[in-house]
Amino acid sequence: MGETKKVKTICGYCGTGCGLILEVKDNQITRVRGDKDAPVNQGQTCIKGALGYHYMHAEERLTEPHVRKGGKLVPTSWEEALSLVANKFHDIKTSFGSDALSIFACARATNETNFVTQKFARAVLGTNNIDGCNRT
Amino acid sequence: MGSNTSEAHPIIANRMKKAAKKGLKIYVIDPRQIDMTKFATKHLPLYVGSDIALMNAMIHTILKNGWFDKTFLENNTTDIETLREQVSLYTPAYASSVTGLSEDDIIEVAEAFAKADKGMIAYTLGITEHHCGVNNVFDIANLSLITGNIGKRGTGIMPLRGQNNVQGAGDMGCLPNMLTGAVPISDDQHRNRFEKAWAVSLNKHVGQTQTVMLEKMNEGRMKGLYIIGENPVLADVHMSYTKEALENVDFMVVQDLFMTETAKMADVVLPAKGWAEVEGTYTNTDRRVQRVRAALDAHENLKDDWEILTDIANLMGYPMSYESSEEIWHEVRELAQTMYGGMSYERLSETNGLQYPCPDNDHPGTEILHTRFQENKKLDHPSPFIGVSYTPPVEQPDENYPFTLTTGRRYEQYNTHTQTKYYPDQVKQKQTEETVDMHPEDAKELEITDGEYVQVRSRRGKVTVKAKVTEQVQPKLVFMSFHWADVPTNKLTIDEFDPISGTAEFKACAVAIEKID
Q1: Topology of A4-57 in CATH?
Q2: Keywords, A to Z (chain B) (predicted)?
């Protein structure tokens, strides 16, 4: 059995942004506590923050890309999945123009991912059709 | 207003409750008798969607009684006479007939808010998820401005963000009209700056909101769609409309942690790392940028969301590569220096987060915005009042659909439940399945008992759901959340949207409730 390590982070649920301390053993979160040094929550947590982490270890987590073949989504390699995406987006862009493409960005993901998402939309796809679940 | 704070933002609610014990007066303005009402000076249970009638009557009352600081208004605002005209109809008597509140309560809350030395309005989706969501927010701004509640500690407008990084996603530029750092895409100077940095020419035309994108999909004019970490099939209004739109897209990619209801409709599904597996930052509801850290080694076949995007970019012939999230953050800080220039990962760690704007390394971050309003001098660009009119919810109850359905969240669950269904069994939850919450009078009339399964039907769909008989809702009002996939509440909700924000009217549609024989 490994040692328990403590990792200081921020809750991934609501916009309050509570500081959390994750206790991790053998690559499993074993406990989540409120971070007493965090200015937002000063050590407190709600049920989602403290106990809502089990999804990270769920068996149903996707670990392989899937592509639709014969009407069904089947597991495949990254190489095949990403080439398909790149080719299809390229074809749509060429045939119908950039504004026939759109992205729903993720208000749950990091700033860094969101920055790259909009850069991808604008610089690669060539469209400003980018929006997210912050609106709906 | 329109914030079920203790269930949707429990830790903020705790702070409010603590302050209430020390003397803070809380007025809860919400159609439902939510838990926060226990800590309130007064609960004003207005009819769903009548917020503008209440706020206009408050402004009317404040103007009529002179409960405002004339110098503050002269220094900081314009168009007060237009506003006065706009609210002239909204006497407490008229507002009482529209909101269902008593005239005395309307006058009381107006006086309390105007005369308090510090007053703040906290709101959530109860304000924005209406066909008039933007007008609701305009009126909150009018009310804050006319009472001088802006630009000093303990005042202001506090939109409580629902998701961890709603603020950040928008600030990063995941909006059809804004680039990173909240600068308009249509502004040549800013756009040119990004074009230079990215060595590419950018489309200067504002893009479509998600609402309009879905419309275009339904019309067959949107061919490709890339969805990252979102489950619109369950989360968006009018499910059959959403599904039709997505089916109409030629090629759809979904990037997620799970095979969600939306992922099942995709042509390609890409698995991503999740929270606790990635490094980066989130921006919370009060503009605090905070460091998020990886605690777990993800499955070896998973990639960071941004890594998947850069892989596709490279395959499409646009070179994009980052060694780490920190390298991406450096680019953000360079492109939006006035907001984030002083926010290195190192400083964010040392400080437990910094509030933007924070332009350089010596800047302490900005706790309070709009302080110019409190400088006691005439502003170069004073704020105009923007008067708005009350418009009732689009779909009114009638004899066929006699109830108003309003939707929201419950304490333990989160949105479409893809994450919160994994609580271990020993966690005691108040609610483990969806209910339609209805008033005892209505239940009695329909001979429905608590715990009985009933059918809820709107013009767009129907669901079977357990009845919860509770005085938390008003007579003729029913409440449901959309957490559980087996009761897809958004089959019922209406595809009516605010014309400016594109936000849907999740908070009001007409339904019928029937016993199941």
Answers
A1: N-terminal domain of TfIIb (2.20.25)
A2: Iron, Iron-sulfur, Metal-binding
